[in-house]
Each structure stands twice: as C-alpha cells, then as structure tokens.
C-alpha cells in the first residue's frame, strides 16, 4: 500500500477510533495531556522525532529545532518533540512560520509553546501540554533527532504514524499500521451501525453490549431488528418538576452564594463545561458510580436506559483521566431521551459530536481512550462523591458555563428562595448604577457585601 493511501485511510478516522483499535491489538499509543493549543484542525502524518533537554552550559548553539525543520523534504511530516520543561517554551511562532513554509503538517510537544497567537494566525497546528511566555533561549537545547523517544509513556520511532484531534494525540507504530487501520475501519463501521440503532430507538443496553464490541473482531454486524421509539417512556415526576422550576432563571454563581449563606457545601470542584453553554442545565441527579473493571468486565453504559426525561446523569469515576465513560453513542441516546445533561468526575470523548449536538456535558477533561474493560458500573442511584461534593440521588443539579453546583433535595426550596433574593438585590444594584449611583453607594445601600455571609 502506498504511503499516501495509508495516510488517507488514517485521516478518515479519529483518535477515539484509532485508540480503540490499538486496544483491540494490545498496543500502546494513546497519550494523555497532549491537546490542541489553539482551535487547530486534525493532523495526520509521519513522525519526525526530536528530543530536547535543559541547557547546561553557556556555549552558543543553533536555534532550537531549526536543523530538523531545514532538513524536511516531504509533505507528510509531523514534528514530535519530547523532553520539554514545565513553564518553558520549546516552540514559538517563528518556528511555526518556518514549518508552514516547509509544508510540515503540525507539531506535537511533550512540553510548552509560546506565541500561540502567531501559530493560529498562520494556521499551523500545535499540540502540547500548554502555553507559556518564557523563552527557550539559554534554557532548552536540542539533544538528538530521528531516534526513538518517549511521549507521555509511549515510545515513538522516526516514521511512526501520528493522528491528533480535539480529544488528544495517538501514535501508531509503523510496523502495525495496516492492522490498526483494518481494525479502525471495522470499529468505524460498527459505531456507525450502533449510532443508527440508537437513533432508531434501540435500547442502548443492547446497542453497547459486549457482544457488539467483540463482533468487531469478525466485522460481522448484528442484524437485530430495531423498533421505533418516540421520546422517553420514563417521565419526570411532579415533585421533580416542581423543584426544578424553583431554579428557573438562576445561575450557578447565585446558587453558590445561597449555598454559602446557608452553610451548605455544594460547589463542585474542577468540573467544567465542555462548551460555553448559553443557558443553565437544571435537573434531579441520576447518580452512577464506576469502579475498576472485574474479570470478566461488567457493563459500562446500560444504566442510561433507566434515566428519566429531564434528569442529569452524575457520574463518579473517581476523577480518573486515563479512560472515558461517555462518548458519542451515549450522547445521541441521551439527546433522544430528553436527558437534561451529564456531569462526570472524569473525562469524556467524541467531543466533536457532543458539541455539534449541543448536549450539555460537564467534565474534568477529555481524552480518547475507552473505558471499556477498564471500568464498569459499580452502582446506580446511590450516594456518590464528585469534585469534593456528596451527591444523593434526586438532589438538584444546576450547571452552566461557570461550573456545577449540587443542592441537597431536602433544602432545595430554601436554597432557591435565598438565591432568588440575592439575584433580585444584584439586579437592583445594576439599576442603581445605571441611574447614576456609584458602585460603592449601591452596594452599601443594598447590603451587597453580606449577601453570601452565613446568617
């Protein structure tokens, strides 16, 4: 097979699918934490490996990485850089411009980049740990190139294959690329079939059953007939609807202040929205607890068939970032069933689909590696802990672009009343300011500084 044909086939996949294919073949390749440093496109290519390290003397050196860039003669290269130092750049906009001119497809750094706006302006993809303003000059030097190196626990050789997108970065050993592509294409076909089954109303417990995944090895699709299903037969109770309505028009900052005033811990730490949602997601918690997989492994997603319309799925995966518990099939099914949103103390994948569907998802991050055979459901509708907050089944969840708060169900009316009062006072302050009052005058008159203090 020609190299261009191989790259075309790899380009037709995404990191989630390639990661799953590597799992089927018991190969390493998925890396955690190497994400796009601007909203850059997917990149696919062959690795040009470069190792950098701390500069230990004062001898002048050639500018970092320039010899490798100058030596590139083909248009299939992705620069793969290891050895970066936290807080110190080993990439910048001049290097991006030079690489763009050489038709290099992108750069992946186990380290930091600076001048990221310059890379964005020329449309040059950069993936890495993060951004900084601190220069590499007299701090970082090139150690070697064209040799095997370690990227977040994965060994990458010169000419290995690389794919990177919004979920992260995956490296595929060149000697295994044909088999990985074969399995990746099987998985893609299988997942398309599963999504269609979900869209047609087939129970997700059957769609995502282990037998469906294992059939990928034979590439034989199940021909199970699919019955049409409209909406969700599990409806929200009158009591749930009443409590949810109390929080209509409120946001998480106002509810957070009310929780503070009443001495209730409910602000969920380190779980943030996947996108900048324009309205709050409010609903009773359907709690799910994940545990490490047993042998043989158990279910990963069957619980979603039991979630009622308007519920918020709240998942405790113990903050794990090495495997996901939510993807495109779950997103599609949740949307069809009228589920309000999902909160995960852990990571998600298939984020492009989630964002396209505008499904409210709140997580600690994103990664492409599946949770199948790594975790399983340990319990549903039992007390769990997420982001340092205890969540009981049917507690009221409020989540928006600021984050997530959880309100104990038995205090929901009290919290909503205080939050509404705080919101009214803050609105009055804005009216006074618009009428000519100073901020100090308005705040003093309406008691702004004591709004969230315990009474």
UniProtKB/TrEMBL annotation:
On whether Magnesium is a keyword of this UniProt record, the answer is yes
Pfam families attached to this UniProt entry: RraA-like
The UniProt record gives the binding positions of substrate as 327-330, 349
Keyword DNA damage in the entry? The reply is no
Q: What would be an example GO MF term here? A: metal ion binding
* Binding-site positions, Mg(2+): 350
Which InterPro entries did the record assign?
RraA/RraA-like, RraA/RraA-like_sf
Which cofactors are reported in the record for this sequence?
Mg(2+)
Keywords of the record? Magnesium, Metal-binding
Provide the protein name: Demethylmenaquinone methyltransferase family protein
What does the organism's lineage look like at the top?
Answer: Eukaryota, Fungi, Dikarya, Ascomycota, Pezizomycotina
